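Q: My collaborator sent me two sequences in one message, no labels, and asked for predicted structures for both. Can we handle them in order? The first one she listed is below.
A: Yes, handling them in the order given. First sequence, followed by its structure tokens:
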Amino acid sequence: MKAVGRAVVALVVLACLAPALAMLYDSLRGEEGFSLDAYSNVLREERQWTLLLRSVAVSSVATLLALVWGVAVGWTVARLRGAAGATLETLSVLPLLLPSIVVVMGWIFFLGQNGVMTNLLKSAFGLRQAPINIYSPLGAAFVMSLSYFPCVSILAAQGFRSIDPGTDRAACLAAGPWRRAWHIWRPLLTPYLASGGMLVFLLSFSDFGVPSALMVNVYPIEVFTEFSAYFDVKRAIATAVPPVVLVAAIFVARQALLRARPYETLGSSARPVHGNVPRPVMGIALLAIALSTLLPVAFLAVTAGGDYAESLRTAGDQLLTSLRVSLLGMIFLVAGGLLFAAAYRGLGRAARHVAEALVIVPLIVPGTAVGLGILFYVTREVWPVSSLYPGPGIVAYAAAARYMAFPALILAAALAAVRRNLLQAAAVSGAGPVRTGLRIVGPLIWPGLGAAATISFLFCLGELSASVLVNPPGTMTLPVRIASLLHFGKDSIVASLCLILTIFTALVLVLGMLLVNRPLRVRLQDADRTA
């Protein structure tokens, strides 16, 4: 069984890594065989190192800001209860699921060259230029931190909930808040914050929409420019490899750092402490939610006016294409995640660590590089990738190849929570694998399955960096359409399209939450009737 599990995991990982492997192979293939000419040319240029350092700096600043927002939101969510805590937790997740192009467009209409706040400040103080320059690396880092801080807040909330409340109360008797935070919270929260920070760094490093909208030249944009402007595929691929190596080294360092770290404490079973959130922490949490969601959406609505009908006429086909692509991508991701999770359960400890690392690798690769790898298979008519072109399937595959880590790890955790004695009892009773899966495993992992499907759909809905390269003629998605209208389209139409994308994201999120929670209520009601 372990051999079968390794083969299934290898198949899923290979499907996700195929674009990156094709990109690497094509870059090393010269006219006379193996060649490193493209890499040597790129590495000798000062421009490439400057862009690499700029990307690292922007991603690092975004990560530090996201840690500030995320810790405050996670602490607040973990301590609040009832409707207030549930509402805050839902709002705190929304920025991650919103396409980053939507968030950055809200800020452009707020603080851009002709933004609402910029025009007010110009008229109030008689300024000729915008007092705040959002079109800068610091502005890009700020916006990306607001888009990706939920990666930190979700894990930070789980970390605060795992702290033994008895230990925390005992520390209150002898230590102040700063000493308690350093000696108790810091060691226990380090794994969660390091994992969240690494995700923010990866997503920021590979982000294409925010830097392109703010006209900040970073490495993913350079890869796209080398291909689309100069039509130099080998140079574009060689340009994409150094950041992959850099981020892979960061991932390995993170794994070594957390090897001996505890993930939970053992102590009393008392309930976590609720309600004692300091006002500064609460203020930072509310500010993060306002800046990341409420303020951009509000200024999108102000800029949009009433041009929704014209916007749908302009990009209605692209909206339908995005929905088809998202549905196909969700099917690819959930199916691949289920295969990965089922095989992952039977692996040994060392094999699990390898599988986790490999399934995360596609997040390291810039989306533009993934698009180049897929084009390698399409242009050479390599089956089965070439069979998806032209059509929405090729764009769905690009999104699935990038984001397989999320459904795979979510479903692996859901399956790990299913007790083996239930499966053994079903086998003794004569139930086959299909019946066991439908009657026992399915209901138990339904919350994880619903969460994986919802996240997969929303990530596919907002995917931009790979789609901008692999979109076949007549199959343009809505984020790509918004990006194409960014500098030349009418502001009201661009804002309307961003709001339409936001509305669909919110509707899918609410529907996903209802689907995830409904089976739990049914099981509780059935239990009450049985009792």
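Q: And the one she listed second?
A: Here it is, processed independently of the first:
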Amino acid sequence: MNRLYKYFTLIAGILAMAIAPSCTDLEETLYTEIRSEDFYKTQEEVVSALAPAYGDLRWIGGIWELNSHNTDHTLIPTRGRHWYDGGHWQRMHEHTWTSETPQINGVWGYGFDRVNRANMLIYQLQQLDHMDAALRDRFIAELKLIRAFGYYHLIDFFGNVPIVDRFDVEPGFAPPNNANFQAGRTEVFNFIETDLLQNINNLSENVDRSAYGRFNKWAAHAMLAKLYINSEEWTGTPRWDDVIANCDAIINSGNYQLEGNYFNNFLARNNGSQENIFVIPYDDTRTDWGLIFYWLGHHYAMQRKYNTANGPWNGFSALPSHYKSFDEDDLRRNGWLVGKQYSSTGEPLLCSEESAPNPLELTVDFINIYDPSDNATYDHRNALEYHGPRFVKYEISALPAWSMPNDLAIYRYADILMLKAEALMRKNGGAATQEAVDLVNEVRARAFANPEGKLYTTETLDMDALLMERGWEFYHEGMRRNDLVRFGKFVRGEWEFFDRSNEGDHRNVMPIPQPRINANPNLNQNPGY
């Protein structure tokens, strides 16, 4: 766990104790507030105020779920009596979700919670007459990056959303309640772009511990590259040169490089990665219910394999076609666990429910390996407890509490190289240039002990191959749905278990959650829902 985040946590705790009301002193001394003229005088004091805004970023699990479990990569199948959850996960795989689907409501909440928290702190900083102007501009810039991060996910999932750029709009800082506040997607895009461009030069260029887990200049360039790569899809106007320019800013800085080992980016203690540009820090004792890939995906018996304090829940797995799509020599496939499983001391682990007491063997295909005569259909609605490869891309350590200690990689240098290659190809009508091939091969070569014969040429790298390569490199990193939409492959996707051939293009965005419309009837539902 990085020291800066521990510092954030410590300062927040100290402040909570410092402002707690006294129960024994009846003198008229105020312990419930800190006078603004006595605070925000140093960088450390402002950092402590920003800690909750960065800490809130940790609740990003819903983004990962809606960017993976409705794609050609992963799903949460119903396993007997487990994971039915009102049929919501089944509908996610089938692309039959509705405005009542709770996971969609959670993503809306995540986006606007980031926006509202940032607006609140920006408002507070702007009220301080005594604060050093340069220091205030620096931290307001970071807060506007947090706001832009929230809006990036809102524009991605929902398209047309309210633009709220101030804290004092009404009690509870809800969006203004009038008929015209819901902005079009292009307007939201322009708002995000403006926030990024106007603040990027006020951000730190540091890449040391002082900037770890915080938005610096290079993280802003990465967000701009991600914004511009989607410009054609979101606004109708391609911005390929802007993608290239922001990728080049990061590449030419010399601050980042590919890790020699792909999995170094996802270690339990991965704060030493030279590839991760921006991460959300987690800790195995200080961030309860934080990063829970292990609990969501692994079989109940795996507790004895990893010696964790609590057992996992046997949820999501890879789709068979995704696992099978890897080259057998591709080391990245090792981020999915298959085969017979054993405890940390070597004893075979056992199935515990439908197949008990058979050995626990995680299968790629959804078949009954213990009864070949079984003619039942196993799919996303009817899976057995051992079906599907399980996610081990993020290293699993002996976890004492409800969070993995791995810091969550949001922007990686590998993505910057791949985004530049994509922009070069799209500028060239979808055909690969040699520069694009070299960039993609730089990423791909790392995945093979002997890359000879495994790399692309200008003849073999096309847009379909690029999308597949992005899938092998970035699986379950919170971007697959976005990639599939941009490449025109999300709706009517041809992957296992359900026929989506008749679904409409409106499902490239999610519906505005019905609970939000109920709370504010001026919200207009997205077309098709």
